[in-house]
Design a protein that fits this description.
It contains seven helices and 13 strands. It is α/β, with parallel strands linked by helices and about 280 residues long. The chain has a single domain, classed as 3-Layer(aba) Sandwich (Rossmann fold). Helix 5 packs across helix 6. The termini are close together. It binds S-adenosylmethionine. S-adenosylmethionine binds near residues 208, 253, 254 and 256. S-adenosylmethionine binds near residues 57, 209, 238 and 256.
Amino acid sequence: MTIPCFLQPNTIYCGDCKEILTKFPDACVDLVYADPPFCTNQNYEVSKEDEYGTRGFEDRWKGGIQTYIPWMEARIEQIYRVLKHSGLFYLHCSIHAGHYLKVACDKIFGYENFRNEIIWCYSGGGIPKKDFPNKHDTIFRYSKSKKYTYNPEYRPYTKGTVKRGRTQVKGKYFDEGLRKEGTPITDWWTDIKYIHSPTDKERCGYPTQKSESLLERIIKSSSNPNDVVLDPFSGCGTTIAVAHKLARRWVGIEISPVACNLMKDRMIELDANPNVIERSLE
Ligand SMILES: C[S@@+](CC[C@H](N)C(=O)[O-])C[C@H]1O[C@@H](n2cnc3c(N)ncnc32)[C@H](O)[C@@H]1O
């Protein structure tokens, strides 16, 4: 079988992202957002079965972090290879393995290409009895070179700032007055929802589903229309759905056939006409 041209827009690959990525040519995607299993030692499962089957995935690693990190490194190496010279990589992590993954990414991308450690703060969910509640995820942002897309995002000024004006600081970056677009979003994201509620309209019933507003911020700030956006751990397809809505070309890879079907139907609902490639590309 010939290798399908992945660059045809709107393709979902069902399989292991490492195997699939090795079949892609070098330097062919503009933006990668990866939200892999976090090494939490848990199984994520939605118990209710429907036409898709039980939704979920396993995040247990025999050998723990010592097994998980080389597994991730092998996939990040492929991500690095398929990224264009001007590309950007976002790696979504949690407290479980984030620090180890930062070291792995520094090695693969080069320490000098580390751009941001984004802290996504949220609320809701459980409260432990003996620890501070952990209510943030970390998203590492890497470029492949010094040339990459950055479309700044803004939020409205607070009422206090509007009344008082901007606080004066010395230095070359100070310019007086309020900007008409608002204040630039920093690396501290507190305005993005976490999907908790069972009645949330976005909810697909897939565990660990991320909100569309999170992906909107990443895709808008780091790519332009018609760019190719890749998600190698697509889950129920949040990245590719948002990429499609924002007129980007997209590629989703996912190992769970249940999630692939869910993602396919999500894209059909958006009239995205997805190509679905079910098995390895041999
Ligand atoms: C944290 S979830 C992603 C959730 C996704 N961001 C969303 O909004 O729905 C991680 C996903 O990675 C998938 N996965 C695990 N190992 C994989 C592999 N080797 N290749 C591709 N996907 C994999 C799991 O099945 C799971 O759906």
